Amino acid sequence: MRSETDSQVREGAKILVLPAANLSTVDDTGLVRAILDGDSRAPRVLWDRYARLVYRILRRSLGQQNEVEDLVQEVFLNLFRKLPTLRDPRTLPAFLVTMTTLTLRHELRRRWVRRCMLLGAKEDIDPDLRAVHPNPEARQAVARLYAILDRIGREERVAFVLRFIEGMELTEVATALGLSLATAKRRLVHARARVDHHIANDPGLAAYLSGIDEESP
Amino acid sequence: MNTSLEPPDSDRALRHLCELARTTFNEDLSAREQAGWSRLKVKAAGRPRPRRTLALGLGLAAAAATVVLLTLNGNQTPPSLGFRIVDEAGVPQAAPDLASAGRIEFSDGSRVAVAAEARTSVTAINARGASLRLEHGRLSAQFVQLPQASWSIAAGPYQILVTGTAFDASWTPDTRTLELWLRHGSVLVKGPNAGQGLAVVAGQHLLASATTGQIVLDAMAPAAPSALPTVPTAPTPAADLAPAPSVPAERPATSPRESLRALHVAPAARAPASEPSLTWPQALARGDFQRILDEAARRGIDDVLSGATSADLAAFADAARYGRQNDLAQRALLAQRQRFPRSLAGRDAAFFLGTLDESRAGREAQTSALHWYGRYLAENPSGGYSGQALGRRLVLFESLHDRATARETATLYLAKFPSGPYAAKARRIVESEF
Q: DSSP of B289-307, one letter per residue?
């Protein structure tokens, strides 16, 4: 860089202009480097690139379409704070998912404490689900699924959502949760068994599921 | 993943419920959520910074309480440098007046003059030098060249790495702009878009914007900067920095305060409004882009494009580019190529046409940028911008998903510029699998 730059200036071209890089097209490595270099455009690009992913994981984990915005912001604030510790910028998406699951587990713990203090009071079904599922039975089935997830452990819940709803590979789940592959697999087996058990013993869900055919929903 | 306890149709039921959950909770963002970035920025700005354990928090802005001798290394040898803060007349200050100019004097004889209202602090110090942070305003530094000297000045996201040298630097937080005038020696500037570091040598001026990412490196105007109004040459290093009698200071011809106030004026504004007959290259070197654009408008753009000299046309194109009048810049560069195709400026114009295309969005613009960079390289295989042109081409090929050509270009880049600013990216492309 040094010699190249010097030669550019000395060979008669008086002015060297390094054009602003188009950050929206740079890869994650370049984006992380730009953020660490203090490029003020870069955090916005990262937000644009990954905000939807974080929203989606939090929504699917909590069973809420709305009211996750504060958590999303918390994830990104933590991400920007921890970014200097990221050793390999190519793993940015996995790093972000890990930050998301950390925030998520904290939030689940907070909700559990709140439920305990309110003596088992449950949160209402998100009213905005009506817009997504006009079918009240489908809506109810989703609510029942999340009621079941409320009854299994927080760690199992997060693992279950990442694997079965978010569709992550087993290795990705293990990375996101900071677990070995074997431990992640065990946790998923337990989670799956518990969810299956609750589904089988939920009369409302059983009635709904008996009415579906293979192609639905 | 099944367990033996599952009912026979649990897979189907679970698949169905998970699919319901997926379609229910999607990644569509409401208008408010899409605007979440603005709120995040506010939150991030309001979050307190982590405490720095080593930050000494000293300096004119931090209002250091006393004149101190700093030794971070305790009984270790060699001892750390010391420093003290003095006013314009060289009188040590226990509680520096922020409104006034002042000076930081180091025990090795290095001096940093800080303009009135500017904010700077010494964040670390050792036997080989110190780290300073320029938070706002302008300073003028003169560092003594000693073996293994290590000085640095941080300004926003930029870092100026110094050996022995003299320069002026200013940092404007509002516009996130760093400006640097090198009087002697050389420095390495690191920061956004500066790759592994940008060398700035004596006689050069650097303007870097962390907002746009653009960096302009040009020749320092003869009149700028106001050299060392408050950094008197120290006859001997200030060995004893305990509270001491006032240090003799060489008074500049004009009032020091007056000189420092002048430091706050932008370089372009320092030139008298009625300065006669500056050539366009001279005006450009002073950063007075608007003067060139105004004169061109007065003369008529078409007349300029068809009648100006190659040097004026180049200055006009640069002024238009810096003024973000890209259409005008493009016309000037095309005229340069048409009228002076064999001149250096005419050949360089191809490179700048590529950068202009890159500033536009879309595949067509990228393809056009590739064309111009290719033309530049064909006409100037060893030209001053050949590294940049080749580097931009590999970036563009990758962006256009032309992996084979990107790989080919990356290989060529590494052969010609193994330690160039795009070398890391080129290696990644070469080593990646199809």
A: HHHHHHHHHHH-HHHHHHH
Task: Give chain B positions within 8 Å (CB) of A188.
Answer: 1
CB-based contact (8 Å) between A15 and chain B?
yes
pTM of the full structure: 0.48
Structure confidence at residue B25 (pLDDT)? 83
User: How many structural domains comprise chain B?
Assistant: 2
Range of the domain at B332: 280-431
B22 assigned to some structural domain:
no
Pairing of strands B151-155, B177-184: unpaired
CATH number at residue B404: 1.25.40.10
| Inter-chain touch B214–A19, beta carbons under 8 Å | yes
Q: Does the beta-carbon distance from A1 to B39 stay under 8 Å?
A: no
Query: Is B124 found in the same domain as B256?
Result: yes
Long-range contacts of B231-234 (CB under 8 A, 24+ apart): B231/B103, B231/B111, B231/B112, B231/B113, B231/B140, B231/B141, B231/B142, B231/B166, B232/B90, B232/B111, B233/B142, B234/B105, B234/B109, B234/B111
Q: Which chain A residues contact residue B195 at CB under 8 A?
A: 1
Considering the domain architecture, whether residues B338 and B402 belong to the same structural domain is answered as yes
B257 CB neighbour count, 10 Å cutoff: 14
Please give the class, per CATH, of domain A124-217: mainly alpha
Check whether residue B288 and residue B241 sit in a common domain: no
DSSP secondary structure code for residue B239 in this structure:
-
Instruction: Express each pLDDT in B54-76 by its tens digit.
Output: 233 333 333 333 333 333 333 44
Write the DSSP assignment of B251-315 as a string of letters. PPSS-HHHHHHHHTS-HHHHS-TT-----HHHHHHTT-HHHHHHHHHHH-HHHHHHHS-HHHHHH
Report pLDDT digits (tens) over B373-412: 999 999 988 877 888 889 889 888 988 888 889 999 999 9
Q: Which of B29, B40, B385 to mutate to test the interface with A (most CBs of A within 10 A)?
A: B40
CA distance A212 to chain B (A): 9
**Contact yes or no for B44/B37 (Cβ under 8 A):** no
Where do we find the tokens 């989670």? Answer: A191
> How far, in Å, CA of B89 to CA of B86, rounded?
7
Report the candidate in B243, B295, B297, B221 with the shortest Cα–Cα distance to residue B94: B243
- The span from the CA of B321 to the CA of B284, in Å, is 11
Tell me how many residue pairs between chain A and chain B have CB atoms under 8 A apart.
221
Residue A155's SS3 state is helix
- Domain covering A19-122: architecture: Orthogonal Bundle (1.10)
Tens digit of pLDDT for each residue in A47-57?
989 999 999 99
Residues forming CATH 1.10.1740.10 domain(s) in chain A: 19-122
Does residue B28 lie in a domain region?
no
